[in-house]
Amino acid sequence: MSSVATTGAAQPFPTGFLFGGATAANQFEGGFNEDGRGLANVDLCPAGSAREAVITGHLSSLSLDPAQHYPSHLGVDHYHHVEEDIALLAEMGCGVYRFSIAWTRIFPTGKETTPNAAGLAFYDRIVDTCRAHGIEPLVTICHFDCPVHLIDTIGGWRSRQMIDHYLQLCQALFTHFAGRVKYWLTFNEINMIMHAPFLGAGLVFTPGDNEEAVKYQAAHHELVASALATKLAHEIDPNFAVGCMFAAGVAYPFSCRPEDVWAAKQVDRDSYFFIDIQSRGAYPNYALRYLERNNIMPVMEPGDAEILAEHTVDFISFSYYNSRTTADSSTAAEQMSGNLFTTVKNPYLEYSDWGWSIDPLGLRTTVNDIWDRYQKPLFVVENGIGVKDTVNPDGSIDDPQRMRFLRDHLQALKDAIVIDGCDVLGFTCWGPIDLVSASTGEMSKRYGFIYVDRDDQGNGSFARQKKASFDWYAKVIATHGADLSLPDGYEV
C-alpha cells in the first residue's frame, strides 16, 4: 500500500462535507470602540518591533500608546461590511463560515451581569445573514480575546475567577443563539498559551515569575472552563456540537538519530497535551510526570478531574499551516519560523516569504495522527498561505501561489478522508477575505480570495476586490472538491 497514493482529480469529498472560510474578530472586524465595546488584550498588540514582546507577555501594555499603530482597531472594517462580505462568501458557495465573538462587545469589562444589546445585535446580523444565504455559522467563543479590565484586576487567566466570567459569556451566547448556531469552539489554538501567553490568556509576566508554572496554571483554568462550557452547551441545547481547537502540524525528526526522533515526539506531545485533556478527559501521564518533575503542577480544586472527565468535546478542530522539523539540542541545524513556533529548516520542503514551510503531505499525516489518537470527528478550521498580492493595472489580481497551495492541501485532505478513512466534517480556509496577520500585524501578508484595499500603514478605502482564486474556490465548492484543477496557465 503506497503511503502517498492519491484519489485522483475526479473524486469528490464525502456527502455532507462543509467547505467555507474562517476569520477572527480581532483581525477582521474593526470597530474596536464602537457601540459600547470594551478594550481587550488584542487591541493592545501593536504592529512592528514591539509586537512579539507584547504578545508573549514580556512587555506590559495595558493601555493604548499613541506612538504605536494598532492594526486590529480597524481591521478590514467588517463591522460595516457584514452583508457585503457574507454575500461574497455565499457567491463562492461557502456552506460554513467560522467567525469569533469579541468578548468585550458582549461584556465590555468582563464583569457586567447583563450583556451589551448592541454587541449581540451585531452578531445577530452575522448569524442571520449567514442563515439567509444557507451558510452554517461556526462560532469561536474566545479567539485570542480577554477583557483588559480582567487582566488589570485579576491577572487574566492566572486567576480561577476567569472561569466564571467566561461561563457568563457562554451562557449569554448559548441562550441567545440556540436554534441558530450548531457548531461552537471553546478556545482558539489553546496550545498557543505556551507560545504567546498575553495573546492566548492575557498573561503579563513580572520579575520573579516562574513563567512555565504561570502558563500551565492558566492553561488548567482554560481547560476546566472549556469542559464546563461544553456541559453548559449540552444542557441548553442538546443539538449543540462543541469542539476544541489547537494549532496542529506534525513534527518530523531532523534525522533518524534517536535523539532527534525523541525531540520530535516531545514537540508533538506539547500540542497534544491540551487535546488529550479536552478529548480524552484527563491529564496524560507524560504531562503529569513532567509537571511534577519540574515542580510546576497547577493547583487543582476538588472536582476538577471529574469535570474534565465527564465533559469532553464532541469534535476536534485545528489549524494546519505547516509541519515542523525538530532536532535534539546537540544537532546543528538552521532555524526557521512558522505560526509563532520555531522550527528547524527542512531541506525537503519549500518555504513561504514569511519562512513557513509548505507541506501538503504533512496535512494528511497530521489528520491521520489526530484521528488515530482520538477517534472523534475532525474539522480543519484554518489552512492557507500568506503571500504578497499585486493589483494589476486593469484591477485584476493573479494569485497562483495561493491556488496551488490550497489545491495541494485539499488533495492531501481528500486522501486522508477517502483513502485513509479519517472522519472530517469540513474545511474552512484562512481567511477568505484579507485580514490583519496575527503573527506580524501586517496587511501585506494576505490570505484571502478577496482583496481588501488596506496597507500596513493603515491607508486604504477597505474596498473589496475578487482575486483569481475567488472563481477557483467557487469551482472547487461547486464540484464538492472533485475538480481541484487550476485555471489554464496556472498549472506547474
From TrEMBL:
Keywords tagged on the record: Glycosidase, Hydrolase
EC assignment: 3.2.1.86
One GO BP: carbohydrate catabolic process
Cellular compartments per GO CC: cytosol
Active site: E382 (nucleophile)
PROSITE patterns: GLYCOSYL_HYDROL_F1_1, GLYCOSYL_HYDROL_F1_2
Keyword NAD belongs to the record: no
Top EC class, one word: hydrolase
Gene3D superfamilies the record matches: Glycosidases
InterPro entries xref list: GH (IPR017853), GH_1_N_CS (IPR033132), Glyco_hydro_1 (IPR001360), Glyco_hydro_1_AS (IPR018120)
Gene Ontology molecular-function annotations: 6-phospho-beta-glucosidase activity
Database matches in SUPFAM superfamilies: (Trans)glycosidases
Protein name as it appears in the record: Aryl-phospho-beta-D-glucosidase BglH
Originating organism: Corynebacterium choanae
